[in-house]
Amino acid sequence: MHSFNLLAAFGAAAPGPKIMGVDVIWVATIMSAIGVCAIMLVIYGAMTVRDPMAKRVKALNDRREQLKAGITASTAKRRAKLVRKSAHADTMRQFLSSMSVLQDDQIKDVQQKLAQAGIRSKDLAVAVIFGRLILPIVLGGIAVVLLYLTDTYPDLTPVKRNGALMAALLLGYKAPDLWVQNKRAKRTDAVRKGLPDALDLLVICAEAGLTVDAAFHRVSKELGRAYPELGEEFALTSIELGFLTERRMAFENLAYRVNLEAMKGVVTTMIQTEKYGTPLASALRVLSAEFRNERMMRAEEKAARLPAIMTVPLILFILPVLFIVILGPASCALSDALGNMGG
């Protein structure tokens, strides 16, 4: 009975002030709840920070084992896992080959994009090509069922139905490439940010008398937390320098895995120093200065574009809130005054 009285009192309570028909108290309550949830998420993310190099160190150790053993796996369990993956990849490869849609140049291009995205598995290239073929059929079939065979969207015109079907087919075809391109762009940007600092560290290591293998290994350890993607690439290059028969191949693999012209310049410099015996520290110092100037110019370019980019968010989000804060109390007071005059 007491709880019923509380509910009745709550229901009979006078509504709060309204602006444009919206209850201000309810909006403030919802915004406060969203803010509290955001703060809790930030606190959770800050308390559960993981070492970004943990998975990468495991992957590098796996690569070291593969280089030691050639192509075979180091343990029976891993060998069985590789066999299962190869079986799935072979099934997809046979299916694509039977439909004459699988080409060697296409596989090599996808493999390079996957490597530049940080994905080492070569079998996944076949899966990406397989997804280009299967996903349009799957999404297109779902769209046909929802748009034409059932009454899920009865109000759509024929033009909108056809447009939705075409969008589903296009999304299914482009989804694997968009996923790879997104991961590739993020990794390339992360590597670009850390390259000047990495070259400075390489210069210090070279002037201290370390070999190229030891210099790459040392730089990969120092960059592990600040730039984990670049640290992983340098660590893998250090491993390949110690195991591959030709050191040139290790540097070429580094340029193959990183989608940056600057990295290709670094690789060319490293190959020339290995071949002709030119001073490594001076060449890397010049490259580091150029990359730092390029990074500063890129930052200045983004800063110059910032006023134009902020115009639309300013008009859509900031100015309305500012008007509400400034004019809200005055409009509430005016509304109360007019209500009292009318009463």
Q: How are the SSEs ordered, and which strands pair?
A:
Elements: H1 2-12, E1 18-19, E2 22-23, H2 24-47, H3 54-69, H4 76-98, H5 104-116, H6 123-149, H7 158-207, H8 212-222, H9 228-243, H10 247-257, H11 261-276, H12 280-342
Antiparallel strand pairs: 1-2
Radius of gyration: 30 Å
Helicity level: over 70%
Number of strands: 2
Strand order of the largest sheet: 1-2
Distance from first to last alpha carbon: 37 Å
The structural class is: mainly alpha
How much of the polypeptide forms β-strand, as a percent range? under 5%
How would you concisely characterize the structure shown here?
This protein has 12 helices and 2 strands; from the N terminus they run H-E-E-H-H-H-H-H-H-H-H-H-H-H.
Structure overview:
The chain has 343 residues and is an all-alpha fold. Helix content is 82%, strand content 1%. It is built from 12 helices and 2 strands. A hairpin with a 2-residue loop joins β1 (18-19) and β2.
Provide key terms for this protein.
two-stranded antiparallel ribbon; 2 strands; disordered N terminus; 343 residues; flat; mainly alpha; single chain
